[in-house]
Specification:
With 310 residues, the chain is α+β, with helices and mostly antiparallel strands. It folds into two domains: 194 residues, Glutaredoxin (3-Layer(aba) Sandwich); 98 residues, 3-Layer(aba) Sandwich (Glutaredoxin). It is built from 14 helices and 14 strands. The strands form four sheets. A six-stranded mixed sheet has the order 1-2-6-3-7-8. InterPro entries: Glutaredoxin, GRX_PICOT-like, Monothiol_GRX-rel, Thioredoxin-like_sf. Keywords: Iron, Iron-sulfur, Metal-binding. GO terms for molecular function: iron-sulfur cluster binding; metal ion binding. This is Glutaredoxin domain-containing protein.
């Protein structure tokens, strides 16, 4: 409930990476799950892989920034507001204690946090780029924060950690250092062991692609009686599919089914495979029986029920 209250100013979007390729390209999605936080159209942080704790901390940080901005906007828009009053509530003018608390949350937003210029996929200085490459080469999973997105964080973190430059790498909330130190650690041996973090798991090999004809043969033989329809038996999505489902059920037939709307490749391929241009299609023992009209004719002639029951 506290999280819900804190996040009321945020907007959450869930995207299937393969369904919206332009979004995947924009955010350079190479693996899922991936959580990206944006502000003003710019990425300000991300968490790659399944890491609920890091995601929660990153979202809380975003909610805190949004709440601060909302407070500033409200104060500035009120009747009689003065520039001085507005400046006092601007995001960059939060109290030192508030900023310190926010920085503490940010450096603990993930097991490995990188504060850099730009993002992990789009570094905006050569030192940040070098740091990202070192971590990726060592298969170290990390979350990042773009210091260009928040001037208060950019200036405050220098004083907070007594470290004047960027990038800065933190592990378990503790400053490790900049690119020179991390580069030196990587040169001495296994970086994951030195940082005390597990290596990022290697991506699973892509499944071998099964030829379409083999898929279709397997599908028509999945059960002795197979029905290819639009929708499913409990929720047919066309009148012909609904009628044929009713006919089979009235004859007490047990049958498997496949929703052709769920797979365009199967939907088109099965037409050529069986030389039958329409749906639904009924198969028994892997052989095409026909569509609704033929099944109705066979039923009227008393041929269908014996075939269904074998």
């Amino acid at each position: 409930q506290k999280m819900n209250k804190d996040c009321r100013l945020l907007r959450f979007l869930k995207v299937e990476a393969e369904a919206v390729p332009e979004v995947s390209v924009k955010f350079n999605v190479v693996a899922v799950p991936l959580v990206v936080v944006t502000q003003g159209g710019a990425e300000v942080g991300r968490v790659e892989g399944a890491n609920p704790g890091a995601v929660a901390d990153l979202v809380k940080s975003a909610a805190a920034r949004a709440a601060t901005s909302a407070t500033s906007t409200s104060a500035g828009a009120g009747p009689g507001a003065t520039p001085a009053a507005t400046a006092q509530t601007a995001p960059g003018q939060e109290t030192e204690q508030e900023l310190s608390a926010r920085l503490e949350k940010l450096i603990n937003a993930g097991p490995v946090m990188l504060f850099m210029k730009g993002t992990g996929d789009n570094p905006r200085c050569k030192f940040s780029r070098q740091m990202v490459q070192i971590l990726k080469d060592a298969n170290v999973s990390f979350a990042s924060f773009d210091i260009f997105s928040d001037e208060a964080v950019r200036q405050g973190l220098k004083k907070f950690s007594n470290w004047p430059t960027y990038p800065q790498l933190y592990v378990a909330g503790q400053l490790i250092g900049g690119v020179d130190i991390v580069q030196e650690m990587a040169g001495e041996g296994n970086l994951q062991d030195q940082l005390g973090v597990p290596a990022e798991p290697a991506p699973a090999p892509a499944p071998a692609t099964v030829p379409l004809e083999e898929r279709l043969k397997a599908l028509v033989n999945k059960q002795r009686v197979m029905l290819f329809i639009k929708g499913d038996p409990d929720q047919p999505r066309c009148g012909f599919s609904n009628t044929l489902v009713g006919l089979l059920r009235s004859r007490g037939a047990e049958f498997g089914h496949f929703d052709i709307l769920s797979d365009p490749e199967v939907r088109q391929g099965l037409k050529d495979f069986s030389n039958w241009p329409t749906y639904p299609q009924l198969y028994i023992d892997g052989d095409l029986i026909g569509g609704l009209d033929i099944c109705q004719e066979m039923d009227q002639g008393g041929e269908l029920e014996p075939m269904l029951k074998g």
